[in-house]
Amino acid sequence: FVEAGRAAEPGSAPDTAGDVGAAADAAVTAAQVDFADAFSFSGKPQFVADAATTLLEGGISDLRSLSGRISAATQPISDFSASLDRLGSELSTLIRAPATLASRVTGVVVALRGVASDVTGAINAYRTLWPFGNDEPAVTGTTASLIQQADNQAAIAGLLQRAATAEAARAAASASFASADEATALRELFTAQFDALLAAADTDDVFTALTDLHAAVVRDLNTRAAKLPRTRQVTPSATQPALVLAQRLYGDATRADDIVARNKIRHPGFVPGGVALEVLSDAA
């Protein structure tokens, strides 16, 4: 016989990944509304519409270039390219309906994640879009047409940057990390990006949505980092196989692959001596 003891109460834990997803949805919605309110060329010369179309075509081109660099199956890339083709061919009509245009643009940004074969690839692709439009020449002038052209340029850049950041955050919520240091490094990258977006936010709704998303990302990454091992450096005294080094460090030769991958060692049979290596902190 075994004494049953007290019945354990069910445990609970916050759904930090779910919070990131909800905050990302709110941030994308706020970005779409802000774009629809700011973007216009009604009653303005043709060059205002042409400038907006050219910048949007540049965004489509960047997305197409990213899909070509992501490792993925042929069919998802083909479907994504087809969606970009449709968006490009319909731009002349869509720019007359800003709300619909915003929805279509964010739609292809969201679809980019489905092209990537892994979470890391998706995050890196979205990070490439974070500075979109920042290198565009500033539109100067005091005429109503030039002011609207500048507003349109900022609206297009803001829409793509905010959508790409929100989707990168959503992807990060499902990422796996081998160490707390990896989660912390990603948190710092997001913090720098959110600082830039918040500085450029021109409405309270956008500012609030981005602030909430930033807080959700930080909370999620901090929660998961607290459960992960940290890294430290060791310097082998002599060149040796990764299997031998793993056995000496961890008492477990099967962890040799982590040493090789973490330090990008060219040949697992020859881990160089006298060179500092990054290993998990549970190493002896």
Question: What does this protein look like?
Answer:
By secondary structure, this protein is an all-alpha fold. Helices cover 65% and strands 3% of the residues. It has helices spanning 16-38, 46-69, 74-89, 91-94, 98-115, 119-129, 144-172, 180-200, 204-225, 242-250, 256-262, and strands at 231-234, 277-280. The chain has a two-stranded antiparallel sheet with strand order 1-2. Helix 1 runs antiparallel to helix 7 (144-172) and helix 3 runs antiparallel to helix 5 (98-115). The chain is elongated and about 80 Å long.
Gist of the model:
It contains 11 helices and 2 strands. The protein is mainly α and 284 residues long. The mean pLDDT is 90.
**Helix fraction by DSSP (H/I, runs of at least 4):** 55-70%
Assess the beta-strand content as a share of residues: under 5%
- The unreliable regions are none
What about the largest sheet? 2 strands, antiparallel
Shape: elongated
Instruction: Name the helix and strand elements from N-terminus to C-terminus, one letter apiece.
Output: HHHHHHHHHEHHE
Structural class: mainly alpha
Strand order of the largest sheet: 1-2
If you compute it from the alpha carbons, what radius of gyration comes out, rounded to the nearest whole angstrom?
24 Å
Q: Please, what is the average pLDDT? A: 90
Q: Strand tally, please?
A: 2
| SS element count, helices | 11
* N-to-C span: 42 Å
What distinguishing features does this structure have?
single chain; 284 residues; mainly alpha; two-stranded antiparallel ribbon; 11 helices; 65% helix; elongated
